[in-house]
C-alpha cells in the first residue's frame, strides 16, 4: 500500500515564525500536492510538484513556498506564519499512469497563535 | 482541473439505511473518483469509475456515472456508524495538466446507531 507520511499531526507555532511541514511518500510518485482545508471552503490547492526541483502554484500560494529536493519528499514552508494560516494541511501524491488515485497523508492541524 | 459539486451538503440517517450522495460536474471527464474523509484525517480513495463505465461496485459501495447528465452518485448500502465521514467526488478531466484533482466541499454523512 502507498504510504504518505506527514511529519506532524498537530503543530502549534507563533506569528512570524518560519514553519516547515514535511511530507514523504514511498511509492516513487512523480506528482505531489499540498492542500489546505478549512470549514466551508473545502480543499484548496496551495502548490504542487511534478518532478524533483519543479513546482507550480496552485490556487492559493500566497504566503507559502515549497521545496522538492528529493522525489519522495515535498516540504511546505510558511515563510512568516500568520493567524490566517491556521488550518488543516493535507499532502498527497500521485503516479503519472492513467486512472490513478491520489493518496493522502493524515494531515497536519496547524495552529498559529 | 475541475471541481465536482456534492449534494446534499449533509445527510443524517439511521444505521442499516442506505445513503445516497450525488456529484455534478461541468466538462467532459476521463474518470471520476470518490474519497472518504474521517474527522481529522486525510482523504482515502474509495472507488474510481472510468468515463466508459456506467456502474461500479466495491463491497457495500455502488457508484453510477451518467456522462450525458454529467453526474455521478455514490450509494452506501446497509450503512454502519463507522461510515460516518465526509465524502468527496473528484472528476478528472481529459488533458489534466498537472495531474491534479480538485475537491469540492463534500457531503457530511452521519450514521446514527
Gyration radius of chain A, in Å: 13 Å
First and last CA, distance of chain A: 37 Å
Helix content of chain A: under 10%
Q: Taking all residues together, what is the mean pLDDT of chain A?
A: 95
**Contiguous runs where pLDDT drops below 50 for at least 5 residues of chain A:** none
Task: Specify the overall morphology of chain B.
Answer: globular
Shape of chain A: globular
Which structural category fits the helices and strands of chain A? Answer: mainly beta
Q: In terms of per-residue confidence, which ranges of chain B show pLDDT below 50 for 5 or more consecutive residues?
A: none
| First and last CA, distance of chain B | 38 Å
Largest interface: A-B, 29 and 23 residues
Number of strands of chain A: 11
Sheet with the most strands, sense and barrel status of chain A? 7 strands, mixed
Helix-strand topology string of chain A:
EEEEEEEEEEE
Query: What strand line-up does the widest sheet of chain B have?
Result: 1-3-8-7-6
Which whole number gives the mean pLDDT of chain B?
94
Rg value of chain B: 13 Å
Instruction: Report the major sheet of chain B.
Output: 5 strands, antiparallel
How many strands appear in the DSSP assignment of chain B?
Answer: 10
Structure annotation, total helices of chain B: 0
What is this structure's SSE topology?
The complex is a heterodimer of chains A (113) and B (113).
Chain A: E1 4-6, E2 10-13, E3 19-25, E4 31-38, E5 42-49, E6 56-57, E7 64-70, E8 73-78, E9 87-94, E10 103-104, E11 108-112
Parallel strand pairs in A: 2-11
Antiparallel strand pairs in A: 1-3, 3-8, 4-5, 4-9, 5-6, 7-8, 9-10, 9-11
Chain B: E1 5-7, E2 10-14, E3 19-24, E4 29-37, E5 43-50, E6 55-58, E7 61-66, E8 71-76, E9 85-93, E10 107-112
Parallel strand pairs in B: 2-10
Antiparallel strand pairs in B: 1-3, 3-8, 4-5, 4-9, 6-7, 7-8, 9-10
